[in-house]
Design goal:
By secondary structure, this protein is α+β, with helices and mostly antiparallel strands. It has nine helices and five strands, in the order ααααββββααβααα. The chain has helices spanning 3-6, 10-15, 24-37, 39-43, 94-101, 107-112, 122-134, 139-146, 148-159; strands at residues 53-57, 62-67, 74-79, 88-92, 117-120. Strands 3-2-1-4-5 form a five-stranded mixed β-sheet. Strand 2 (62-67) and strand 3 form a beta hairpin. Helix 3 crosses helix 8 and helix 8 packs across helix 9. The protein is globular. 23% of the residues are buried.
Length: 168
């Protein structure tokens, strides 16, 4: 069994006792940073600005609700049991979602191998994926930069977790 497989549920164990409220200010600043760095992503989702996407890292004790309105960006964490209603849901392990956003994995391939599941308004998810595919750089890099040196160290560790070094 690879290190990746053994550590798959570690986030669930580590993050379970953390109060979700601690994430809210950081998530708000994070989504504003992403919009500032990549306004074209949300411009391409114009028909979906008032819709909601639930991002479900299956090995986390919480989910994230994203509303891609550039005028009023919204990214919030919820305990799994308190997950709000949404227009679309995308589910997969944290590393699967990260690697897809980072451009390391193909969303279509993940869907067909069932490593990723999509429910609800699939048009929103496909539009978001296309916008991410067409953007320059990586949202994962933006997030790492947001957290400084610790963020870059963590992202590099996650990118290399299964022993495959990826150069972007």
């Amino acid at each position: 069994m690879s290190l990746f497989e053994r550590m798959k549920n570690l986030p669930q164990i580590i993050l379970r006792p953390v109060p979700v409220g601690l994430f809210q200010p950081v998530l708000g600043r994070l989504i504003e940073t992403v919009i500032r760095n990549h306004p074209d992503i949300f411009d391409r989702l114009e028909s979906s600005h008032y819709k909601s996407i639930l991002i479900n890292p299956t090995n986390f004790p919480f989910v994230f609700l994203l509303k891609p309105n550039p005028q009023d960006p919204f990214l919030r964490a919820y305990r799994r049991r308190n997950a709000p209603e949404c227009d679309a849901r995308i589910s997969g392990s944290f590393l699967t979602l990260l690697r897809m956003v980072d451009g390391q994995l193909d969303g279509d391939a993940l869907f067909f191998t069932r490593d990723l599941s999509i429910e609800g308004d699939t048009e929103i998810i496909v539009s978001l994926r296309n916008a991410l595919d067409d953007m320059e750089g990586s949202i994962a890099d933006d997030i790492a930069k947001f957290f400084g040196t610790a963020g870059h160290v963590a992202l590099n560790a996650l990118r290399n977790l299964d022993g495959k070094k990826v150069h972007l």
